[in-house]
Amino acid sequence: MTPGTGIDLRLVRARPCVARVRWWSADGRLAGDKRVHDTTTLLRVPPGSWRVEVEDARSSHDPARLAPGRAQVEVRAGWRTAAEVRLAPGATVTGSVRTAADGRASQALVEATTTDGTRVHTRSDALGVFTLAGLPRGVDLLVGARSRWHQATPLLVRIGPAPAPRLVLRLAQPLLGASRPGGVDPVVGGALRGLVLDADGERASYAAVVELRDARGTLLARTRSDREGRFVVGGDLPDRAGLTVVVKSGPGDVVVDRVHLRGLAVGAGQLVDLGTVRLTRSPRRPRPARASLPRASAASLRLPSTRV
Question: Low complexity bias: where (predicted)?
């Protein structure tokens, strides 16, 4: 990266909020993600074309949430390119999710997708009611809902100056199966499994932390081993290569040991068995004693005398 190259981003908010800033390269790769409290921030990126997206960090059901904004920035070598993104007041869509028998569907996933690809999702509460806030105005939304086994027919909503009508999403269609109109095929991702033992190789390591990272070190999945030391990490992975599994000892061990399994690959719908992972303890040098620390003496324990 050329020194001094980057994006001087200025955020104009309709009301105070914490902004979440993400930026993508020209090939669609996510390059960075951070939260910004100030009005300006510097994104250190190499020269090229970058897409910057900014959204309100509030929850998607908070009515005070602002609509997201984006900017396309061309960065030149040795230059700091100025860019501005505005977060305007957003629209709100409310409604309810019902079952096929007209019952309340709690904890159903509700998602709204705009024409430019922006997605906002939330879940219905115990009464089946949902609120989607911070939606951009003047665009068409496709709002749908799904539960574990069923899904609702998506509704097309136009966000204009007037408040949007209250929606009713009915989970009347099975989620899986491509034979029906509008159905989707089940997608089964890849996963990795294994068995974690302690450094002696005799005891299962309970609650050991297992992390799955890609070639860039980005965290993809995280889990812990059970009481028998077994773990399964992933479950929704596409065809990937160059993966690394990092295993750390659980909270029952005083010293944290780590094992890195590099160069792994997994395919969609494939369960890769890593076998037994043994936590090898690396030698640790003892801390040197500090001669500068004061030592206890009899004088320091002497109390003032009191005459009666």
Answer: 289-308
pLDDT tens by residue, 227-259: 889 998 887 788 888 899 999 988 776 666 788
Per the structure, the count of domains in the chain is 3
Angle at 54 between CA 49 and CA 57, to 5 degrees: 150
Give the H or E element holding residue 226: none
Domain boundaries, position 126? 91-174
Phi-psi label, residue 172: left if phi above 0, alpha if psi -120 to 50, beta otherwise: alpha
Pairing mode of beta strands 190-197, 271-278? parallel
> How do strand 258-266 and strand 240-248 relate by DSSP bridges?
antiparallel
CA distance 154 to 33: 30
Q: Dihedral of CA 222/18/93/135: which sign?
A: negative
| CATH number (domain holding residue 231) | 2.60.40.3330
Q: Could you tell me if residue 182 is inside a domain?
A: no
Structure tokens at 206: 């309970």
Query: Which residues is 296 bridged to in the sheet?
Result: none
Distance CA(76)–CA(260), nearest Å, equals: 39
Statement: the pTM of the whole predicted model exceeds 0.85? no
